[in-house]
Amino acid sequence: MAGVKEIARRLAALERQLAEVRQDAAAARVLAGAADRALSEAMRALAAQTRALSALRETQREHQQQTQDGFAKATAGMAEITACLQPVINRS
Hints:
Protein name: Outer membrane murein-binding lipoprotein Lpp
Helix content: over 70%
Structural class: mainly alpha
Organism: Kutzneria viridogrisea
Radius of gyration: 39 Å
Keywords: Coiled coil, Lipoprotein
Number of helices: 1
């Protein structure tokens, strides 16, 4: 059986290991907190980018509609001009 000195030596080794484990656990908590803050910041940035892209999409839809309306007016105007010129063309 292990003597008192052996048990004391093993106990001291365990106490040192426990101290290291506690330090490692504290460091892990610090790292976890930093990771949580970094993730929160990334999520806020992603949400901001999503809002910006949604606004850009809406602006593009509005511009597309304005362009389509402009072409429709131009087409109608050209049809009107053609109708006005058709009698002149037919006389020739």
